[in-house]
Amino acid sequence: MMRRLRSVVARVVDPVADALLRSGVHPDAVTVAGTVGVVVAALVLLPLGHLVAGPLVITVFALTDLLDGTMARRSGRVSPWGAFLDSTLDRFGDGAIFAGLVVYLASRGDDQVGAALALAALVLGSIVPYARARAEGLGMRADVGIAERADRLLAVLLSTFVVGLGAPAVLLTVVLGLLALASLVTVVQRMAVVRRQALAATPDGGAA
Hints:
Blueprint (H helix, E strand, L loop, with lengths): L1 H21 L4 H18 L8 H10 L1 H12 L4 H29 L3 H26 L11 H16 L5 H32 L7
């Protein structure tokens, strides 16, 4: 099933990537444009309560993550800089989505719990990739956890969209709570994994 899905996505993305490359568009430009689109849509549409249009526009721009990577591979421009830029700008997009929901829920006045959970999901979600990056910077691995970026984005955008179509608003609050909890669990999991690696690398096993 996943192989078939990748094949379908490739048939759509590859021709677009080739057309942009022939036009002289650099993969980094697509990365930046996609991030700007996500940030603007999240900070303008979501706070105004456009819960159907917002997720749709955000999803369209978020798909540039597939496009810029394909362009880099097909043009031979895969580089550490491109990977760094993509990963860094992803944090802007993720933060803007949850920040937009914080503003929207807080402005309603009757869902302060939802606003607090959206803020918690924003903060904890930002620690998840930091924990992994910091571990890798120390020569260790921390690629475990139950709250990967793609899963978090899919859950929050889908629940927002469904609420925009008329589902009970409490659905979004519940999803935000689950995302905050999942992010917290992931951070703890990564800390535990890094601690085990650090202790194993210490000659005396970390004993005082």
